[in-house]
């Protein structure tokens, strides 16, 4: 085997380093703040490919107080929002900070499915994969898992815009 072929096979085997971000780094990347910040950390991110976010659903969340008082359940639209925020971090990191602080607007949400309720004490593992992008428009597929069960899934697209 030639040195060139050996180098090629080594580079194929080497795994890309996975990026991780705590909540302070997430807040530097996207403009959301409590009570609308729905990502506590990024556990894994591969630029231009996918991200895995984490949200700890605690009884202290404002939405649990009224949805529903005797049997609190996280609203499905907020689960989808958590996917979008995870995707926004992926976009900012993919663009190497050029999109930091910009706003990400939903353009469409497709095939949203809710498979199990999210309740206080659950940890949401938010899996987001980039399907494609053209200019400021990005398309994603998202899935939220709790205890290794699918809680929600959806396809969605978003547009990156300046914060006027």
The dominant shape is globular
Q: State the assembly state of the protein chains.
A: single chain
**Which strand-content bin applies to the residues?**
35-45%
Number of helices: 4
How many runs of DSSP E, i.e. beta strands? Answer: 7
Class by alpha and beta content: alpha+beta
Architecture blueprint of SSEs:
Layout: H1 3-13, E1 19-21, H2 23-29, E2 41-46, E3 50-56, H3 62-66, H4 76-94, E4 103-114, E5 123-134, E6 137-146, E7 149-161
Antiparallel strand pairs: 1-2, 2-3, 3-5, 4-7, 5-6, 6-7
Can you describe this structure in just a few lines?
The protein is 26% helix and 38% strand. With 164 residues, it is α+β, with helices and mostly antiparallel strands. Strand 2 (41-46) and strand 3 form a beta hairpin.
Describe the structure.
It is a single chain. 26% of the residues lie in helices and 38% in strands. The protein has 4 helices and 7 strands. With 164 residues, it is α+β, with helices and mostly antiparallel strands. It has helices at residues 3-13, 23-29, 62-66, 76-94, and strands spanning 19-21, 41-46, 50-56, 103-114, 123-134, 137-146, 149-161. 27% of the residues are buried. The model has no long low-confidence stretch (mean pLDDT 90). It has a 7-stranded antiparallel beta sheet with strand order 1-2-3-5-6-7-4.
């Amino acid at each position: 085997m030639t040195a060139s072929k050996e180098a090629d096979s080594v580079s194929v085997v080497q795994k890309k380093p996975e990026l991780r971000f705590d909540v302070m780094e997430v807040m530097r990347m996207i403009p959301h703040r409590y009570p609308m910040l729905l990502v506590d950390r990024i556990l894994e991110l591969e630029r231009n490919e996918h991200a895995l976010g984490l949200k700890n659903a605690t009884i202290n969340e404002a939405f649990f107080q009224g949805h529903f008082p005797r049997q609190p359940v996280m609203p499905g639209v907020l689960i989808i929002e958590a996917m979008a925020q995870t995707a926004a971090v992926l976009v900012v990191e993919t663009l190497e900070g050029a999109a930091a602080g910009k706003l990400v607007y939903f353009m469409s949400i497709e095939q949203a499915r809710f498979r199990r309720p999210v309740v206080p004490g659950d940890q949401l593992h938010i899996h987001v994969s980039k399907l494609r992008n053209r200019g400021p428009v990005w398309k994603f597929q998202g899935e939220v898992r709790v205890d290794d069960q699918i809680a929600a899934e959806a396809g969605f697209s978003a547009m990156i815009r300046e914060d006027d």
